[in-house]
Amino acid sequence: MKTIMTQSTVLLAAVLVFTMGPVKVRAETGNVAPQEEITIKGKKPARFNHTTHLDLGLSCATCHHDADHKPRTAEDIGALADTAELKCVTYHNGDFTVPKLRKAKDVFHARCKSCHTEGYQGRKGPKKCNACHLKKKKAYEGC
Ligand code: HEC
Ligand code: HEC
Ligand code: HEC
């Protein structure tokens, strides 16, 4: 019995060593759209929910593209080594070639607000500031 236990422990350890490698690699390269709401950080943080938007039938490329403005597919995103590539302000900042797409406000309002106004397949999105922007915390909170 003891020998069997030892053997299975060794086997288990071997299996763990064998599988830990691929698991780590997957964590680095298997990026998927977050299911929970995320916060787009900036001076005026805003909420964004991938699930709501993907349920509309949008593809990743509606919002994600590379530096040459080539659309990014789910596979392209999955293979990225660094998700900072997906943060709009990593590129859309004071150095961006097109002056009118240097400010976070202009970039996000152009992409988010224009679709909410024009609609997608007949469905419009919210346009009120606080539908997207998080309300500021009251001063007494956290005291
Ligand atoms: C459909 C979503 C959406 C709506 C509606 C919206 N915004 Fe925004 N806005 C964003 C996102 C996303 C950002 C980028 C987050 C950031 O830069 O802090 C942003 C950025 C901004 C910024 C830039 C912050 C900075 O960097 O200086 C300002 C100011 C702003 N919004 C004001 C407004 C006002 C005022 C309204 C209402 C008239 C409004 N927004 C409505 C999504 C929205
Ligand atoms: C309607 C717009 C939109 C669509 C469609 C969309 N995304 Fe995103 N995604 C965003 C925004 C906005 C962010 C946050 C960017 C930022 O912070 O500057 C983001 C961030 C991400 C991140 C980084 C999350 C993090 O917290 O680091 C991943 C991964 C991602 N998206 C994957 C996907 C995949 C995969 C698809 C397609 C299946 C997809 N997205 C479709 C708008 C979108
Ligand atoms: C191509 C069209 C399109 C784009 C681009 C888009 N949206 Fe939307 N969004 C919609 C529609 C349509 C709805 C309404 C969905 C519903 O009623 O189920 C919506 C709903 C929302 C809502 C309310 C429901 C929820 O998910 O909490 C928020 C907040 C929102 N969008 C934020 C954003 C932000 C921020 C961006 C840009 C990063 C963005 N959207 C880009 C079409 C779009």
How is this structure best described in words?
This protein is mostly helical and 143 residues long. It has helices at 2-29, 50-54, 74-78, 88-91, 104-118, 129-132; strands spanning 38-40, 46-48. It starts with a helix and ends in an 11-residue tail after the last helix. 1% of the residues are buried. It binds heme C (HEC) (3 copies). One heme C (HEC) binds at residues 31-34, 38, 40, 48, 50, 53-54, 58, 60, 62-64, 74, 77, 83, 86-89.
SSE-based structural type = mainly alpha
Question: Would you tell me the overall average pLDDT?
Answer: 83
Task: Please give the largest β-sheet.
Answer: 2 strands, antiparallel
Strand order of the largest sheet: 1-2
> Which spans have pLDDT < 50 for at least 5 consecutive residues?
13-17, 19-28
Order of helices and strands: HEEHHHHH
How is this fold's topology laid out?
Elements: H1 2-29, E1 38-40, E2 46-48, H2 50-54, H3 74-78, H4 88-91, H5 104-118, H6 129-132
Antiparallel strand pairs: 1-2
Give a summary of the structure in a few sentences.
The chain is mostly helical and 143 residues long. The chain is 43% helix and 4% strand.
Task: Provide key terms for this protein.
two-stranded antiparallel ribbon; globular; mainly alpha; 143 residues; 43% helix; 2 domains; binds heme C
